[in-house]
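*** Fold description ***
***
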Amino acid sequence: MLRSLVGSEMCIRDRYQRRVRGFQRAKMALIVPQSEFQHILRVLNTNIEGRHKVPFAITAIRGIGRRFANIICKKAEIDPNKRAGELGPDEIEKIVTVISRPLQFIPPWMVNRTKDIKDGKTTHVVANGLDSKLRDSLERLWKIKAHRGLRHGWGLRVRGQKTCTTGRKGRTVGVARKKGQ
């Protein structure tokens, strides 16, 4: 009885290892020739992995999430099961067009910058523009001494979370003891 139990455990472990090893050896099937496949694409100052499927690959661009990436693929008429390395220059141009002018393709409530405080426009900010807009917003909040801006500046939690025991980020942890104990 003991041998059969050990044997069955070994069998399960072997099957699992075979499955894992087999998964690691699996290779991607290419539809386009190897010479036309791009392993790294450059879109909007961002490197995109060519071996990932298009919707997941373009989420590497800051400001584009999975939901927006799926909409980009639909509006640009690109197959979402296609690999990013298989895209041609005209398809990449369609993607860039949809990203740069999203209000022509999606409703305004879906963009990440509605009614900007400075110019009042509704836009979708991506890549390097996102960093500068975020920095400008935080500087404005700091200058007007808003509670949110001050806590951002001090590096504390902003949205009402507890800070007694969590979020110390390298500061001292534990209780200070009195001398002599």
Remarks:
- The CA atoms of residues 55 and 67 lie 9 Å apart.
- The first strand starts at residue 40 and ends at 43.
- The radius of gyration is 25 Å.
- Confidence is low (pLDDT under 50) at residues 1-5.
